[in-house]
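Quick one, probably user error.
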């Protein structure tokens, strides 16, 4: 899922994520560009008619056939659920535009030289539809493969054929250089976006998920739970009398105690559970697939783990109060995540009122 943090991923996974994001960007930008390709392909018939009034109709047959294929692939990718065909179809359209233009130009007595200029422009658009450099290499190889039979079939003077080969190779070289520049900037933008996304969801002190990340995660987990009929539980923790630690040992010692608490709480949970910093000295855990009974046991484990922890530089330990709420105890199955948090919060405050260093769940 794209919302998951990218930290801790292998270079291969990051590369896959980069290509996936490029594909998504390509689909977002290119769903409608086939119209302009078809129009340009057909529009050049006017030029053909101007330079060679006797033969432009012969050329138009190739233009019309090419435009028809471009339109067909374009309209197909717009059907519901077919957008993922776009990266392949974009390549097909480039090749069709290239082949149709070459054939069309070869029908004209004059104007083949201009046709070659058109081929160069089409080849350069490969940088626009390539996912990355490897993809661009693939496109350029396809271009070479597609143009070989075209050059064998068209009837133009040998000099024009040699000219075509030279200009096509130059265009491919230029496209490769351009592709490198674009790839570097795309990768930089991807890394920046990834870091921003991660930082916006990470608490800088404890490195846990922050409140925003936990809110999103909770909504996702509650929806998943409601769909599949399994419970999800939320645990809200608040360190007891934490202000006293700051007052007595200073803010830095308080920060260190928060970092240590985060580690201790993390170790009390399963890997599939989420732990985040909900506020100043408050933590939230989300336990997918865990019912109220199980969550109360986990909460008790968290409470005990904090109670027995010896904090560096603090002569006394600290304790934590906990409120637990579970989705399966709520009558309304379409219930909102915010209400579940509210429930846990109310139980946390009951734990405070009843003397702190305790867990309040549905069972008590
Ligand atoms: P209670 O048992 O009722 O929760 O008492 P408390 O003192 O923990 O509660 P209160 O909400 O009055 O105070 C929370 C304290 O947590 C106040 C603030 O100094 C401290 N705190 C919040 N965020 C941080 C932080 O990032 N670093 C440090 N060092 N202290 C923090
Ligand atoms: Mg608090
Ligand atoms: Mg507190």
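Nope, works fine. Designed sequence:
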């Amino acid at each position: 899922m794209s919302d998951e943090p990218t930290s801790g991923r292998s270079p291969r996974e990051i590369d896959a994520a980069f290509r996936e994001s490029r594909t998504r960007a390509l689909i977002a930008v290119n769903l409608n560009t086939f119209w302009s390709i078809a129009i340009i392909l057909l529009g050049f018939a006017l030029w053909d008619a101007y330079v060679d009034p006797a033969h432009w109709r012969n050329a138009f047959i190739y233009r019309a056939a090419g435009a028809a294929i471009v339109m067909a692939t374009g309209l197909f990718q717009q059907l519901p659920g077919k957008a993922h065909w776009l990266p392949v179809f974009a390549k097909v359209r480039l090749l069709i535009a290239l082949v149709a233009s070459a054939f069309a130009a070869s029908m004209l007595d004059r104007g083949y030289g201009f046709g070659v200029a058109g081929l160069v422009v089409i080849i350069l658009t490969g940088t626009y539809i390539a996912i990355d450099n490897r993809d661009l290499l693939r496109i350029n190889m396809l271009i070479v493969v597609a143009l070989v039979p075209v050059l064998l079939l068209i009837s133009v003077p040998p000099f024009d054929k040699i000219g075509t080969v030279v200009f096509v190779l130059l265009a491919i070289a230029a496209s490769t250089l351009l592709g490198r520049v674009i790839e570097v900037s795309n990768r930089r933008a991807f890394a920046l976006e990834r870091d921003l996304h991660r930082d916006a969801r990470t608490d800088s002190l404890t490195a846990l998920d922050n409140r925003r990340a936990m809110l999103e995660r909770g909504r996702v987990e509650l929806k998943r739970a409601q769909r599949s009929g399994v419970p999800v539980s939320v645990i809200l923790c608040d360190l007891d009398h934490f202000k006293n630690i700051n007052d007595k040992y200073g803010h830095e010692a308080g920060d260190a105690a928060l970092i240590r608490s985060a580690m201790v709480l993390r170790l009390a949970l399963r890997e599939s559970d989420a732990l985040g910093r909900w506020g100043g000295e408050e933590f939230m855990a989300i336990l997918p697939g865990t019912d109220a009974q199980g969550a109360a046991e986990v909460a008790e484990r968290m409470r005990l783990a904090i109670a027995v922890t010896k904090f560096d530089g603090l002569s006394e330990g600290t304790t934590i109060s906990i409120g637990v709420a579970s989705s399966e105890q709520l009558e309304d199955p379409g219930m909102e995540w915010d209400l579940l948090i509210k429930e846990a919060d109310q139980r946390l405050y009951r734990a405070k009122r009843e003397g702190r260093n305790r867990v309040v769940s549905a069972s008590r």
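Residues 238-240, 242, 281 surround magnesium ion (ligand 3) (CB under 6 Å).
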